[in-house]
Write a structure and sequence with these properties.
The complex is a heterodimer of chains A (about 110) and B (about 110). In chain A, about 0% of the residues lie in helices and about 55% in strands. Chain A is an all-beta fold. In chain A, the strands form two sheets. In chain A, strands 2, 4, 5, 6, 9, 10 and 11 form a seven-stranded mixed sheet that branches. Chain A has a four-stranded antiparallel sheet with strand order 1-3-8-7, with no helix packed on it. Chain B contains no helices and twelve strands. In chain B, a hairpin with a 5-residue loop joins β5 and β6. The chains are: A mainly beta (about 110), B mainly beta (about 110). Chains A and B meet through β4, β5 and β9 of A and β6 and β11 of B.
Protein backbone atom coordinates (compact mmCIF):
# COMPACT_ATOMS: atom_id res chain seq x y z
CA UNK A 1 0.00 0.00 0.00
CA UNK A 2 1.18 3.51 -0.76
CA UNK A 3 -0.53 4.99 2.33
CA UNK A 4 -0.85 8.77 1.98
CA UNK A 5 0.61 10.36 -1.14
CA UNK A 6 1.03 14.08 -1.65
CA UNK A 7 1.76 15.86 -4.91
CA UNK A 8 3.75 17.90 -5.66
CA UNK A 9 6.66 17.51 -3.23
CA UNK A 10 8.14 20.94 -3.94
CA UNK A 11 6.79 24.10 -5.47
CA UNK A 12 7.80 27.72 -5.82
CA UNK A 13 5.04 30.24 -6.45
CA UNK A 14 5.01 33.94 -7.10
CA UNK A 15 2.83 36.10 -4.91
CA UNK A 16 -0.71 36.09 -6.24
CA UNK A 17 -0.45 32.81 -8.12
CA UNK A 18 -2.77 29.92 -7.38
CA UNK A 19 -2.15 26.22 -6.96
CA UNK A 20 -3.71 23.00 -5.73
CA UNK A 21 -2.07 20.40 -3.53
CA UNK A 22 -3.36 16.88 -3.92
CA UNK A 23 -3.57 14.28 -1.18
CA UNK A 24 -4.54 10.69 -1.93
CA UNK A 25 -4.94 7.82 0.54
CA UNK A 26 -5.57 4.16 -0.23
CA UNK A 27 -6.56 3.01 3.28
CA UNK A 28 -10.27 3.76 2.99
CA UNK A 29 -10.02 6.28 5.82
CA UNK A 30 -12.98 8.49 6.60
CA UNK A 31 -11.09 11.40 8.11
CA UNK A 32 -8.56 13.55 6.28
CA UNK A 33 -6.62 16.63 7.34
CA UNK A 34 -4.34 19.34 6.04
CA UNK A 35 -1.70 20.75 8.38
CA UNK A 36 1.04 23.27 7.90
CA UNK A 37 4.39 23.03 9.65
CA UNK A 38 6.40 26.11 10.51
CA UNK A 39 9.63 26.26 12.53
CA UNK A 40 9.03 26.25 16.27
CA UNK A 41 5.27 25.94 15.89
CA UNK A 42 4.65 22.27 15.38
CA UNK A 43 1.85 21.40 12.97
CA UNK A 44 -1.31 23.47 12.80
CA UNK A 45 -4.62 22.33 11.37
CA UNK A 46 -5.78 24.18 8.26
CA UNK A 47 -8.90 22.26 7.18
CA UNK A 48 -10.29 18.82 7.71
CA UNK A 49 -12.91 16.42 6.38
CA UNK A 50 -14.86 13.75 8.23
CA UNK A 51 -16.22 12.16 5.07
CA UNK A 52 -16.72 12.45 1.34
CA UNK A 53 -18.38 15.71 0.41
CA UNK A 54 -17.80 17.37 3.80
CA UNK A 55 -15.14 19.85 4.82
CA UNK A 56 -14.60 22.18 7.75
CA UNK A 57 -12.19 24.85 8.95
CA UNK A 58 -9.36 24.19 11.34
CA UNK A 59 -7.29 26.67 13.32
CA UNK A 60 -5.58 28.50 10.43
CA UNK A 61 -7.94 28.35 7.42
CA UNK A 62 -7.53 31.87 6.01
CA UNK A 63 -6.26 31.93 2.43
CA UNK A 64 -7.00 28.23 1.80
CA UNK A 65 -9.88 26.23 0.41
CA UNK A 66 -10.42 22.49 0.27
CA UNK A 67 -12.55 19.92 -1.47
CA UNK A 68 -13.29 16.26 -0.93
CA UNK A 69 -15.23 15.03 -3.92
CA UNK A 70 -13.93 11.48 -3.57
CA UNK A 71 -13.30 9.63 -0.34
CA UNK A 72 -9.68 8.93 -1.18
CA UNK A 73 -8.72 12.47 -2.23
CA UNK A 74 -8.44 15.72 -0.31
CA UNK A 75 -7.40 18.83 -2.22
CA UNK A 76 -5.95 22.00 -0.72
CA UNK A 77 -6.15 25.15 -2.80
CA UNK A 78 -4.41 28.48 -2.54
CA UNK A 79 -6.29 31.04 -4.62
CA UNK A 80 -3.82 33.90 -4.28
CA UNK A 81 -0.57 32.86 -2.66
CA UNK A 82 1.16 35.11 -0.13
CA UNK A 83 4.67 34.89 1.33
CA UNK A 84 3.08 34.03 4.71
CA UNK A 85 1.96 30.76 3.15
CA UNK A 86 5.53 29.61 2.70
CA UNK A 87 5.52 26.42 4.72
CA UNK A 88 5.63 22.66 4.62
CA UNK A 89 2.18 21.17 4.15
CA UNK A 90 1.20 17.75 5.42
CA UNK A 91 -1.84 15.71 4.67
CA UNK A 92 -3.00 13.03 7.10
CA UNK A 93 -5.77 10.49 7.30
CA UNK A 94 -7.26 8.29 9.98
CA UNK A 95 -10.11 5.93 10.68
CA UNK A 96 -13.05 6.65 12.91
CA UNK A 97 -12.39 5.92 16.56
CA UNK A 98 -10.82 7.59 19.53
CA UNK A 99 -7.14 6.83 19.56
CA UNK A 100 -6.58 5.62 16.07
CA UNK A 101 -3.27 6.48 14.46
CA UNK A 102 -3.08 9.26 11.88
CA UNK A 103 -1.00 8.47 8.80
CA UNK A 104 0.93 11.30 7.20
CA UNK A 105 2.12 12.04 3.71
CA UNK A 106 5.71 13.02 2.95
CA UNK A 107 4.89 16.71 2.81
CA UNK A 108 4.90 19.48 0.22
CA UNK A 109 7.46 22.23 0.61
CA UNK A 110 5.95 25.44 -0.75
CA UNK A 111 7.84 28.68 -1.17
CA UNK A 112 6.01 31.87 -2.12
CA UNK A 113 8.26 34.63 -3.40
CA UNK B 1 -9.29 23.86 24.27
CA UNK B 2 -6.54 21.32 24.32
CA UNK B 3 -2.87 22.21 24.27
CA UNK B 4 0.50 20.50 24.36
CA UNK B 5 3.74 21.89 25.72
CA UNK B 6 7.10 20.40 24.90
CA UNK B 7 9.89 21.69 27.10
CA UNK B 8 13.14 22.15 25.24
CA UNK B 9 13.18 22.81 21.51
CA UNK B 10 16.61 21.16 21.26
CA UNK B 11 18.02 18.28 23.27
CA UNK B 12 21.52 16.92 22.82
CA UNK B 13 22.71 13.62 24.27
CA UNK B 14 25.70 11.37 23.82
CA UNK B 15 25.33 8.04 22.10
CA UNK B 16 24.39 5.47 24.74
CA UNK B 17 22.95 8.05 27.13
CA UNK B 18 19.38 8.28 28.39
CA UNK B 19 16.94 10.19 26.22
CA UNK B 20 14.20 12.17 27.99
CA UNK B 21 11.83 14.36 25.99
CA UNK B 22 9.18 16.19 27.99
CA UNK B 23 5.54 16.66 27.13
CA UNK B 24 2.75 18.20 29.19
CA UNK B 25 -0.81 18.45 28.00
CA UNK B 26 -4.01 20.14 28.98
CA UNK B 27 -7.31 18.50 28.27
CA UNK B 28 -10.72 18.71 29.85
CA UNK B 29 -11.34 15.01 29.35
CA UNK B 30 -9.13 11.92 29.46
CA UNK B 31 -6.87 12.44 26.48
CA UNK B 32 -5.63 10.38 23.61
CA UNK B 33 -1.88 11.03 23.49
CA UNK B 34 0.69 10.32 20.82
CA UNK B 35 4.38 10.70 20.09
CA UNK B 36 5.45 11.09 16.48
CA UNK B 37 8.95 11.22 15.01
CA UNK B 38 9.99 13.14 11.92
CA UNK B 39 13.24 12.36 10.15
CA UNK B 40 14.71 15.01 7.85
CA UNK B 41 12.58 15.74 4.80
CA UNK B 42 10.04 13.08 5.71
CA UNK B 43 6.55 12.89 7.06
CA UNK B 44 5.57 12.00 10.61
CA UNK B 45 5.73 8.43 11.85
CA UNK B 46 3.95 7.15 14.95
CA UNK B 47 6.27 6.14 17.80
CA UNK B 48 3.63 5.21 20.34
CA UNK B 49 0.19 6.09 21.64
CA UNK B 50 -1.57 6.10 24.99
CA UNK B 51 -4.60 3.81 24.95
CA UNK B 52 -5.62 4.00 28.65
CA UNK B 53 -4.95 0.27 29.00
CA UNK B 54 -1.60 0.91 30.67
CA UNK B 55 0.19 4.00 31.92
CA UNK B 56 3.56 2.82 30.59
CA UNK B 57 3.44 2.59 26.82
CA UNK B 58 6.09 0.90 24.73
CA UNK B 59 6.71 2.01 21.17
CA UNK B 60 9.00 1.34 18.28
CA UNK B 61 12.79 1.67 18.30
CA UNK B 62 13.05 1.14 22.07
CA UNK B 63 11.09 4.23 23.05
CA UNK B 64 8.51 4.32 25.81
CA UNK B 65 6.35 6.91 27.51
CA UNK B 66 4.62 7.09 30.84
CA UNK B 67 1.22 8.70 31.28
CA UNK B 68 0.94 10.56 34.59
CA UNK B 69 -2.49 12.03 35.07
CA UNK B 70 -1.59 13.88 38.27
CA UNK B 71 1.22 15.70 36.46
CA UNK B 72 -0.61 15.91 33.09
CA UNK B 73 2.56 14.58 31.51
CA UNK B 74 3.50 12.05 28.86
CA UNK B 75 7.29 12.14 28.73
CA UNK B 76 9.19 10.07 26.17
CA UNK B 77 12.26 8.08 27.17
CA UNK B 78 14.80 5.70 25.73
CA UNK B 79 17.47 4.10 27.93
CA UNK B 80 20.30 4.29 25.41
CA UNK B 81 20.45 6.73 22.51
CA UNK B 82 21.58 5.67 19.07
CA UNK B 83 22.85 7.90 16.29
CA UNK B 84 19.81 6.93 14.22
CA UNK B 85 17.52 8.50 16.85
CA UNK B 86 18.50 11.98 15.70
CA UNK B 87 15.23 13.51 14.51
CA UNK B 88 12.43 15.84 15.56
CA UNK B 89 9.88 14.51 18.00
CA UNK B 90 6.34 15.74 18.40
CA UNK B 91 3.90 15.10 21.21
CA UNK B 92 0.25 15.39 20.23
CA UNK B 93 -3.18 15.12 21.81
CA UNK B 94 -6.21 13.98 19.87
CA UNK B 95 -9.26 16.15 19.64
CA UNK B 96 -12.03 15.19 22.02
CA UNK B 97 -14.62 16.37 19.51
CA UNK B 98 -15.84 14.46 16.50
CA UNK B 99 -13.14 15.68 14.15
CA UNK B 100 -10.33 13.71 15.87
CA UNK B 101 -7.70 16.22 14.78
CA UNK B 102 -4.31 16.32 16.48
CA UNK B 103 -3.01 19.26 18.46
CA UNK B 104 0.77 19.23 18.36
CA UNK B 105 3.47 20.53 20.60
CA UNK B 106 6.14 22.71 19.03
CA UNK B 107 8.54 19.79 18.71
CA UNK B 108 11.91 18.80 20.17
CA UNK B 109 14.92 18.27 17.96
CA UNK B 110 17.11 15.49 19.31
CA UNK B 111 20.82 15.51 18.51
CA UNK B 112 22.93 12.47 19.30
CA UNK B 113 26.65 13.09 19.71
CA UNK B 114 29.13 10.28 19.01
Amino acid sequence: NAGVTQTPKFRVLKTGQSMTLLCAQDMNHEYMYWYRQDPGMGLRLIHYSVGEGTTAKGEVPDGYNVSRLKKQNFLLGLESAAPSQTSVYFCASTMRGGNTEAFFGQGTRLTVV
Amino acid sequence: AQSVTQLGSHVSVSEGALVLLRCNYSSSVPPYLFWYVQYPNQGLQLLLKYTSAATLVKGINGFEAEFKKSETSFHLTKPSAHMSDAAEYFCAVSDDTGRRALTFGSGTRLQVQP
